[in-house]
Amino acid sequence: MTVLVAPDKFKGSLTAAQVAAAVAAGLRTALPGEPVRELPVADGGDGTVAAAVAAGFRRIPVRVSGPTGRRITAFFALRGDVAVVELAEASGLHRLPGGLPAPLTASSYGTGELIAAAVAAGASRVVLGVGGSAGTDGGAGMLMALGARVLDSSGADVPLGGIGLASVSSVDLSGLPTVDISLACDVDNPLLGPSGAAAVYGPQKGALPEDVAVLEAGLCRWSEVLGASFATVPGAGAAGGVGFAALAALRARVRPGIALLLDLLGFEAAVRDARLVITGEGSLDTQSLHGKAPVGVLRAATAAGVPTVAVAGRCLLPPAEWRAAGFAAVHALADLEPDATRCMTHAAPLLRQLAEGLAREHIAVS
């Protein structure tokens, strides 16, 4: 029987693979010879491709357009005929030149280029993670890169970005490839309205109130042309409306990100041989309880009858809440080091130290 280490990233400090390696190192120091398996996970946002690569997928570079059109090198992961594409790799906020927001002009075109490259490499199934987008273009850019024509009333291509959507008159989808798309999505926002892509997420991407109004009007027009019935589907508002385009034009299937990734990474088979699962993320808080990676791991492990312990940079949940969720224990770096900055800069050695104590408490006595 093994100890299965399946954490998400500690955002701003360590990747999921680095977290898993640090925890595993601490376990092996405390209990030499104890079988430990590392299986870093992700929920469809930042780190999704890295988690796939850690599970045996190949990391493939592609030159694509960033959110403002600047050429960048992004990556997707491939194993057999299955590809993992992370929207943030090509079209994410961290890809904005100089970090300057471009709420009206940022596009998902590069994400479409990544999907096209995956299909060209032999993928017939694409898992698309849609967290962290920089724009609100309704996924129009993604469809254009895949071969769709998005046209204005004169028959010309509309401009990229949310600013171009108000002028959409027709769409020609005949050039789209045949590919099975699974959307790894952890939000249930519709495309339009007060809970929609522009109103909720536009300000996070630098949109002023007047920009939000422009984006909302454009998305409304876009939905009328592409398929208004898909605009109300939970998840249509994901990634500035990329979810909507994937649903309406690519006939994607939506699944909770962590559940989809756990299937892809082979978690069910791995947990069968485990006597303890260790998961975690940088901040364990109320958001974590709404389907984020650690709780997804917890639920899958619980279904297999295996107890789960969480590690975190900090835990903002009272013990009653994390116990009610099902965790056997929660251990945070803040319990070892009260200086939050040091917890960020020295996360790896602190995690190793934390794991040594965890091993003695939860494994040596079991």
TrEMBL record:
This is Glycerate kinase. Pfam families: Gly_kinase. The keyword Transferase applies. Its EC number is 2.7.1.31. It comes from the Bacteria. Gene3D superfamilies: Glycerate kinase, domain 1, Glycerate kinase, domain 2. Belongs to the glycerate kinase type-1 family. Transmembrane segments: none annotated.
